Amino acid sequence: MPGVAHRGRGRRTMNEINMVPFIDVMLVLLIIFMVTAPLITPSLIDLPSVGKAAKQPDAVVQVVVNKDERLEFKAGDKTVPTTLKDIAPAILAAQTGKPQGSIAVVISADRNVKYETVVKVMDTLQRNGVQRVGLSVQLAP
Predict the structure, then answer these.
(1) Going from the N-terminus, what domains does the chain have, and what CATH number goes with each?
(2) How far apart are CA 108 and CA 135, in angstroms?
(3) Is the pLDDT of residue 68 over 80?
């Protein structure tokens, strides 16, 4: 096509972005959020709080989970090594003669013990009728 001459006007490249579609989409999203926001009701979460116990426990029994996942039963001044299957009968024996739920059980575990071990102890106690089970924590300085 040697007969066609260029006059110097070709297609120019666009060096700016068309913002109109972007603004349209953003306005539609804004309207959708403005309409739906009042329709969403915030859900309330009932969180536990400290110090709401109706009655303080008569005695506190402690179950200690050592680093090597051995269990110890502490009642008063005596410490007795025990196993997972023997821990619930030992606690229920300590409750004999006292009203149900008057003894609180506190589980103390080493920081390096698997969480699964602590949950197994809690589950075993609750399945065997121990009502008040708690975890001992150390507050950060």
Answers:
(1) 59-135 (3.30.420.270)
(2) 6
(3) yes
